[in-house]
Fold each of these.
Amino acid sequence: MTEARPSPADPAPALAAPGGRGFWPWVGQRLSGLFLAFFLGLHVVLLHFLRDGAIDAEGVMERLMASPLMVTFYAAFVVIVVFHGLNGFWGIALDYAPKDGLRRGIKWTLVIVGTIGVLYGLFVLQALVSLR
Amino acid sequence: MSSIIGKLGGIVAEVRLNPHSGSIAWVGHRISGLILLLYLILHLWGLGSAAGGKAAFDNQMRAFEGPFFELLEALVVLIAAFHMFNGLRIIAVDLSGLGRHQQAMFAGVLGCFALVLAWTGWVFFARVLG
């Protein structure tokens, strides 16, 4: 097959130029994915498949207080899931090879959105832990 | 910068020009990822009602009950399941020597998805009908 075919623009410039997708975001996506496969998998099995009845504040408190590790894990969960989601979005954005300025703009927007997302997620976790 | 239609057209073109399971997996992974990102936002927003106390939280959770929301929840679970199984396949391709078996792995992804589909369907109908 020798004919030229349209494809997402060559990602090499995006990788080489500043603000491009480096090695660590790539590795980070896979490592965070592994963590999420385990913990999100567990979360969904517990809260969707094995759930008995409606979801209410008491049930949430019971689950969160079942072990001192629960809150720690959920805090890590918040950070990791926000990273994985926005880093994934970053990968999609890079596929369209945005020009320098736009790429930097998207990157910093994602960093800001991610920071707000993590802070909000931890705020929600704190609210869930202190449900009364 | 070309239009949104142009960019979606790029995805369609990619599949048309490269009509193999790998392209289907790629599109599925991308679309499922975007949907899950939107779901994450909704999820944190819904749980955020806890800031208003026990009553506010319970009210919000009650608002999410019923067959329609059970269906939406089942769909999110299915979308997450596909994204997870295919994601594990991607990790296997990228970080192990199993890359040459990527097509067989995709068959495995679909197989695992079918199992989750069966379980999800079972739970859904049990809840909606029972």
Amino acid sequence: MRWSSLLGLAVVAVLIAAPLGLPAFAMTLLTELVILGLFAMSLDLMVGYTRLVSFGHVAAYGLGAYACGYLLLNTSLPLPFAVLLAAVMTGTVAIGVGWVCTLATGVSFSMLTLAFAQLLYAIAFKWTSVTGGSDGLAGIPRRAGPMGLTVLTTKTGFYYFALAALVGSYLLCRQLVASPFGAVLRGIRENETKTLTLGYNTRLYKIAVVAISYALGGLAGALYAPFAGFANTELLFWLLSGQVLIMVIVGGSGTLIGPILGAAFFLLLEHQLSSYTEAWALFFGLVFIGFILFAPQGIWGLLTAWFKRDWMRLEKGRRHGT
Amino acid sequence: MAHSDERPSSPPLIELTGLTRRYGALVAVDNVNMQVAGGETRAIIGPNGAGKTTLFHLITGMVRPTAGRVRFAGEDITGQAAYSICQRGLSRTFQLTSLFPEMTARENVRLAAQARNRRRWLPFGGASVFKEAQGAGDAALELLGLTAVAERAAGLLSHGDQRLLEVAMAMAQQPMVLLLDEPTQGLSVEETAQLSRPWPGSWKGRALRRCWSSTTWRWCSD
């Protein structure tokens, strides 16, 4: 077994054991971390693997949150089904978003994704009968439904639900990027014209990856709504699009794991810094600049380089020993 | 460029009729009529700016013609998307080498050959797709003498090896027609000889039916 899979299993084991030893407020933070990690990882499919830089990924998050909130408030769907349905709805909408945005490339693509997010932001504000306007949707319940899923409504149960969504999505993404489809995405990332002239309908691949990425981002949003109990326009605000992009880059784009670490880093730093200073974003900005200049491969890039070196030393020692 | 050629021996694979491309007042390609049959090797020659590359772009769907038709294997492919023209069996290389620089040479040819697989889009698994594509890719690498550098990143190869790799990628697709745009450009006399050595003799026995080249073929005119 490779050292990275061992490390992954160890991390999952720690996360599973976490509720046993952590106080309640830390569990809230950890659940939010898992949800944000999923959100950042979904963006990595576009940014890291296809070089489709989205400035409007918040559209997926907000759409998922509002859809899930609406379903839980206005239908009798149990929690897991509402969450999954919201993710599927977000992915379906994203086919249209992808179709329009992939008419452009580069910065124009980024601007179009931003435009879509802003459009949704405006709709959330104005369509009061569905979205609650500036108040948003409040009092979103974690409904267990008739199938004895009451365990999901507890704090710990919901944490495990979110963790399962993250681990499941990670495994899904990992086999996606290793598949023939993933190889084509890599081709588009490195040289789109060449990929096109080799006989791949690159636009179709890009629309597909936008849909998958948005669906997973929508899943994260759909988990956030019942976690926080509300969905408001802040979940569609452009600032969050920038923040999630920073999480991907600081964590290490094109690695799937990295963005999850980036989200954790962002959340913990925000948590710690904001208790010392109002201007925590300023310091986080400095950290971001530092990463861009000195460690563009991100946290995961630094970690793997470090582990690889240690592992090789260990292997060498073992060989010398025998 | 005005060029006319009438040599209908066997039914033509490529047939250009009145192919024209204008950029404003500039006529890059002017009324080209041409037929190329299976098994033929042709060279398009002309000074810089003659329109050789534009002609290639017109045939492969990178640029839409202002007037005229392109026929491939009897079917009209004028104005079709570049990917669907390639899927018909028409592979090309670029005047400025176009590769996947961070992938190894093997991964480059594998991705090229994968395009020929019906399950090239498979979003999970795909071991058999990769294996098949790698087989075709490795054969193309060997044909062009690149096996020794196969595991190196394409962006780190020498200029000559990069040009050969792009030809190998086109070969890995086992096309019916191969369009090489200035394959010897920027190569030394030795590298030019290396590229022309397996050309076309050892390729003829393969699935490839015809090669076609747009180059000044310096060694030809000397």
